[in-house]
Amino acid sequence: MLYNIKIAAVFATAASLAITAHGAGPVVGQGEECGGFRPDPPTCDTGLTCTVDPILPDLPGKCVPTRVVVGEGQECGGFRPNPPVCAEGLTCTVDPILPDLPGKCVPKRAVVGEGQECGGFRPDPPVCAAGLTCTVNPMIPDAPGKCVRQGPVSGKGGSCGGNSPNPAVCKTGLVCQPNPHRPYAPGKCIPSKRPYDRC
C-alpha cells in the first residue's frame, strides 16, 4: 500500500515537471516574483500584472494589481500603490499644493491652430499650437480669444503694436508706447518704468 502511494507521488511529480517543461510556469500571487528571462517563469494570477525594471527587463519582477483605468471626473493618481490611471483622451489633474493626494480625470486640453478659438474663463480651455499666441479682447478678458501668429520682436525704439495682423511685440524689459495722435498706428518700444516689467 505504502509502495503504491510512493509510485503515485513519483508519477504526480513527473507530470508536474512535464507541464512545467512545456511552458506552464507556476501562477503566483500579489507581491511574489514573476517573469524574467528564465525557463518557465512564474506568471501572475488573474487581476495582477508582472512589473519589471525597464532598465533590467531580463530580471524577475513583482506581481502587482493591474492598474484600473477610470473615466472623466473619477479619482486618479496620488501617492499610493498602483493608483488608477485616466482613460485615453483624459489627464489626471492634481492639486499642486497637495500633489500626493489623488486627482481627477479631466479631458486633455485641445491644441488649436491659427484663427481658432482659445482661452477664456471655462474649464480646460483650448490652447494655441507652438508659434501662436492667444489674443483676447482686453475689455472682455474672460471671453475666448483667437490664436494668431506671434509677431516679430522689436528692440528699444522699434515698432510695436497697432491695429494690424501679427503686430511686432517688444522684447523683455521694454513696453510698447502707443502713438498718442494715431491710436491704431504702431507704437514704439521704450524701457519699462515698472520694476515688475523688467523680467
Low-confidence residue ranges: 7-22
Number of helices: 1
The proportion of residues in beta strands is 25-35%
Question: What is the structural class?
Answer: mainly beta
**Termini Cα gap:** 92 Å
Question: Looking at the structure, what is the overall shape?
Answer: elongated
Query: Oligomer, anyone?
Result: single chain
Q: SSE order, as H and E? A: HEEEEEEEEEEEEEEEEEEEE
Give, in spatial order, the strands making up the sheet with the most strands.
2-5-4
Q: Helix content range of the residues, please?
A: 10-25%
Radius of gyration: 32 Å
> Count of DSSP E strands?
20
Described by strand count, sense and barrel closure, the largest sheet is: 3 strands, antiparallel
Kindly report the average pLDDT value: 82
Notable features of this structure?
three-stranded antiparallel beta sheet, mainly beta, elongated, 199 residues, IGFBP N-terminal domain-containing protein, 10% helix
Secondary-structure topology with pairs:
Blueprint: H1 2-21, E1 27-28, E2 33-34, E3 43-44, E4 48-51, E5 61-65, E6 69-70, E7 75-76, E8 85-86, E9 90-93, E10 103-107, E11 111-112, E12 117-118, E13 127-128, E14 132-135, E15 145-149, E16 153-154, E17 159-160, E18 169-170, E19 174-177, E20 187-191
What can you see in these coordinates?
The chain has 199 residues and is mainly β. 10% of the residues lie in helices and 30% in strands. Strands 2-5-4 form a 3-stranded antiparallel beta sheet, with no helix packed on it. A 3-stranded antiparallel beta sheet has the order 7-10-9, with no helix packed on it. The protein has a 3-stranded antiparallel beta sheet with strand order 12-15-14, with no helix packed on it. The longest helix has 20 residues, at 2-21. The chain is elongated.
